[in-house]
Amino acid sequence: MNPVEFLGNIIEVSHSNLEISSRINAILNIISYNMDFDEVIVFTSDNDKRLTCKYKNQKSVLFDVLDKYRCHIGEGIIGSVAQKRTPQYFNDKNMPPRFGCLFYSEIDRLLEKYKIFAFIPLSDDSYIYGVLVLCSRSRHILMDAEKILLSIVSREIGGVLRTNDLLLSSKKRISELATLSELGKVLTSNLELQMLLKDIALIIARALNALFITIKIDNTFFAAGPHKYTYGNIYPQFEHYVNNLEQKAVQDKKTVSLINQLHDENDVSIKYILRSTPIMSKDKVLGIITICERIPQKDNAYGQNEGYLINNFASYITNGLENILLNIKLKDIIKELNSAQKRIIEQEKFKCLGEMTANIAHEIRNPLVVIGGFTKRLAKKLHMNQTESKYIDIITNEVSRLEAILNDVLNYVKDTPAPFESCKINDCIDEVLYLFSTDTAWSNTQILKDYDNNLPSVICDMQQIKQVLINIIINANEAMDGKGTITIKTEKTEEANGRQYVVVSIADSGGGIDPSDINNIFNPFFTTKERGTGLGLAISNKIILNHGGKIEIENVVGKGAKFFIYLPVKTIKNGEVSI
Amino acid sequence: MNDVKILIVDDEENIRFLFKEELEEEGYSVETATNGLEAIKKAKETKYDLIVMDIKMPGMDGIQALNEIKNFNKEQMVILCSAYGEFKQDFSSWISDAYVVKSSDTSELKQTIKSMLTT
What gap in Å lies between CA A359 and CA A61, rounded to an integer? Predict the structure, then answer.
């Protein structure tokens, strides 16, 4: 045997693209052929710290016996080599009785034919991948050079096993990551809960090759509806276990699992693992996910490490559900906000309606005056008997009653007196502007704000001041036909007499007010609008006058009008307002 | 009393009619106008002891007419008489001499007229 050629062959095989078992078996055959070993067997170290007989040379006889048993690290010669990570060599004279984990006669009988034995660990500096076992019938002695050669070869085999391990675990990791990213995508989508559960179940089922998956979500956290999805069919024999597991998982607030066995039609037993994990948000159980997988027959260590995956899935789902919960809450809040805004707009409209009511009341009062007035005249002119007088009395009384009602309505509309309060005028303007923010009549209106942020507060009836602002700002927008710029400026001024005012100026680009109208715009019922009541500015003016302020107008025909609302800066001392 | 001339300005015919009847019954000589412009025209042509002026009227409203009339005849007495009571307390800021809210009971109007004519 030429060692260089021998190693060359082995390296060539180990670096080839063959599947892992073909590669290792081929290496074992090369060893067997070149070094005259009848048995060249590889035990691999599994995740459960046990050794499994996995690869062999072609003419191996022992493999079929050894394959039946697995041994722990530390047990027998194979176990101790794996533990100590040092090679051991024996001949037929000093071979210890325990080859592997057990004393078993079949092996002992077969072993009698072999003259030399070698047990070489397949390891690197940190990890043991397995043990290489060699037996020869024809050879009596192993040279040191051959031992060195075997240790080199064992390193090569260890390398192949390690690369394979890495490859498998990275493939697994990649597929897990892919699954998680798929889950992430689904969970951040805006799917309905039921669709979401379906997608989650499908993704997990595909990733784990699961037999069935069932996801249940507690209805109380979400809108009503059957929030349960099962992928695949739960075997009737399993239903009981599934229910028990789910209860236990919810109770313990952690993953619980159960291994079960069924027999197929050929009476071959098939093992299943059932796992239930609660979907937890902080301390609340939002739902539960149960997965059933078949345990691969050959994979002895199966299920030791897979548990973390379901936990991962559950925490991903938790995140997703929390998002959905947040979304639902957010939607509710937005709904609430919208309805609150509508209410506010309604209220403001009602204020404007006040004007309408005043107008309608005015229209009604005229005919009432006529009816009542002439009835009274009739009563005076006619000489009536008792019955007729009674009729007339009824009419005049009813008219008086209606007039009284009108007075009440008007009084109610014109002022529901509110206590004066300290108010930041900038905030007040912003609240008013907010009312228009969703109004389509304002979509082409640009509003420029130029606020003095150090304004003193004004003492006022905020609702009334808002009504004034609404009136003037709406007038500005209507003057521009809803297209143009409204500039709102706030500042503080002091007049010659020492009085301090907060001034709000509202300028539009609507071409200004016709000079012939300018002296009348504060008159009640004066309007240039087709459907105006003529009361808006009149009432606004009255409100501001009542506040001790004034409204001034700067009108540039062809450019625009600028309204100045002066509100006196008052101070409250000992509960009394003073200017 | 026949020499006391009153002008009633209102856009509603029935109101004019009612007030005319009521005031004529009191012995006043009553004429009517249907809006501010007509009122101004009449006030320029004829000397009235008193004008009863509605506020909301098409053409020219009562307050504009009131201002015009006071411009050429500061002495002209004008009562604003509106169905809308909201601005009653503001009438003093305008230059009218009185403000009466329209009512089927015309006694307040008559009372106001009487007291204004005697002072």
Answer: 112
Residue B12 contacts A where some CB pair is shorter than 8 Å: yes
- Phi and psi at residue A382, in whole multiples of 5°? -85, 145
CA atoms A432, A436, A442, A445: torsion sign: positive
Tokens of A263: 């027999």
Is A540 within 8 Å of A551 (Cβ atoms)?
yes
Other Cβ atoms less than 10 A from the Cβ of A503: the count is 18
| Cα dihedral B54, B59, B64, B66 sign | negative
Which of B19, B22, B80, B86 should be substituted to probe chain A, the one whose Cβ sees the most A Cβ atoms within 10 Å?
B86
Euclidean distance between the first and final Cα of chain B, in Å?
A: 15
Q: Using pLDDT thresholds of 50, 70 and 90, give the confidence band for residue B53.
A: very high
Give me the mean pLDDT over the A309-336 stretch: 81
Alpha helices, H only, chain B: 13-25, 36-45, 62-72, 107-118
What is the DSSP code (8-state) at residue A171?
H
Mark yes or no for CB contact A400/B61 under 8 Å: no
Nearest to A400 among B22, B104, B106 (CB): B104
List the domain boundaries for chain B: 5-118
> Residues A349, A355, A361, CA angle at the centre, nearest 5°?
125
- Specify the pTM: 0.46
With cut-offs at 50, 70 and 90, classify the pLDDT of residue A226: low
Alpha helices in A188-258 (DSSP H): 193-208, 236-252
Residues B5-118, CATH architecture: 3-Layer(aba) Sandwich (3.40)
Longest dimension (CA), chain A: 157
- Find the range with the poorest average confidence among A222-226, A491-495, A565-569: A222-226
Q: What is the mean pLDDT of chain B?
A: 86
Q: Decide the pairing of beta strands B50-53 and B78-82.
A: parallel
Rg (C-alpha) for chain B, rounded Å, is 13
Range with lowest mean pLDDT among A111-125, A188-202, A430-444, A563-577:
A563-577
CB-closest option in B12, B61, B102 to A523: B61
**A84, A58 contact by CB (below 8 A):** no
Say if CB A52 and CB A43 are below 8 A apart. yes
Q: How far apart are CA A413 and CA A357, in angstroms?
A: 8
Domains along the sequence of chain A with CATH: 3-170 (3.30.450.40), 177-320 (3.30.450.40), 330-414 (1.10.287), 421-578 (3.30.565.10)
Q: Do A524 and B55 touch (CB under 8 A)?
A: yes
A368 and B22 within 8 Å at the Cβ level: the answer is no
